[in-house]
Structures are given as C-alpha cells and as structure tokens.
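Please annotate the following for my students:
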Amino acid sequence: MIVKALEIIKVEVVVRNIAAGSLAKRLGLAEGTVMAKTVLEYYYKDDALGDPLINASHIAALDLATPEQMEFIRTTALKVNDIMREYLAPVNIDLIDYKLEFGIHKGQVILGDEISPDTCRFWDKNTGEKLDKDRFRRDLGNVEGAYQEVLRRLTGE
C-alpha cells in the first residue's frame, strides 16, 4: 500500500444507493428502499460535534473546501460508486452506501480513505444478508465471517 501524508479536508462524503442506517431513519424510508438516484451527503468531520450533516453553503461558510475541490470530491465519489457497483455485481454483492474522505497532498486533492466493509455497507444481492460493519453495530454476530465472505467472493478463493 502506498500512503501519503495528507492535510485532511474536514468533509466526509457519504454515497448512498439504497436506504439504510441514518438515511432510512431520517427520511422515514424502509431499509432496503432503492433510491431513484444516487444520494450524496456531506458531513463536517468533527468528532466533538458528532460529524453533523452539512451542505454546500456550510462548506463555503466554514471555508472547509473550495468549490473546485468539492466538485472533484463529488465527481470522484460518483466515479468510485460506478466502479464499485460494477465490480461487486458479478459476485452478488449490493453496494448500499459508503463514506470517503479526501485530503490535499502537494496542492492536489486525493482520496485519503480505505474502502472496506468497515466504511461500506455490503449486502448479499439475493438474501439481503449484511456483510459489513452493521453485523457489529446491530450485534448480528459473525463479523469476521461476513468480512471473510466478502474477501472470498472478491478473490474467488
């Protein structure tokens, strides 16, 4: 793995394809509702405040990122979404949602986050079984087994 020291942009982006977690709760949607369009949400990266939901006006007012940086973040997050959904489809995994963080390295905005069952919601396409962090959050058990199942499907082993 190649890593670079980044100045983290204090905006987390969450990409949502199917209603789950806080989106389902906030909007009163049944978990598993397929969104008509991909939803992008931005959160102010501040643990003391509980990472509150913010919008473009907040980002500008708090000077968290420039409009150009946010456009790069938006387009990259959507591109990652397209790539991941296509990659996961043949192994019968639905990409429900995920979060990304970005940072600046030598003046360039780059992805500064992992993509794993800890940062994504993965569900079995046929059964709806959760293969991600929700196994721990909801005390469903077999967290390690679910993560290993994702690995098995992706590697074919």
